[in-house]
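Model it.
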Amino acid sequence: MTPILQDFSWDRMIAAVEAVKERMLRAAGALEQAGIPYAVAGGNAVAAWVSRVDQAAVRNTQDVDILVRRADFEAVKAALESAGFRHRHVASIDCFLDQGSDKVRDAVHLLYADEKVRQEYPLPSPGVDDVDRTGGYRIVSFEGLLRIKFNSYRLKDRVHLLDMIEVGLLDKSWLTRLIPEHAVKLQELLDNPDG
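Modeled.
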């Protein structure tokens, strides 16, 4: 199917970025208010860490990833629904969509702390206590973020890791701090940053 192209619009581009920010802040705010431990993860966490070094190197993301404990799911669901989200389980992922939206790609996606997203991953996701506070919300620690990104290692994860290398957050000093499976991946990125 051929997409319908609209006119170029800075306003539409800015609105897309603002919508992700608003969704992330609303979800984090609802979890904070309910006293539920969580951490912002994924592209928003990468952007937060990268922006601490170089604001111009920040890459936009289309969704919101939140790390929570599976035992807290019902409380998370209630908190997010009270903030205007609705739950949907799609392709083994629990996500929360804005009312009136069916686009899973721009939803809030849950990751479960201390669990493997996929059985073949060498490590489970970090815990919800492995966080830093920034801008009024909890963000996964840098070490926890690296664990998530090296576990998954999809193209977008490799791009995020390269962004962290580019600004100096991630370098060869991490080779001895990572598990061997992750250190091999880091060495590949350091040896060939242009793919």
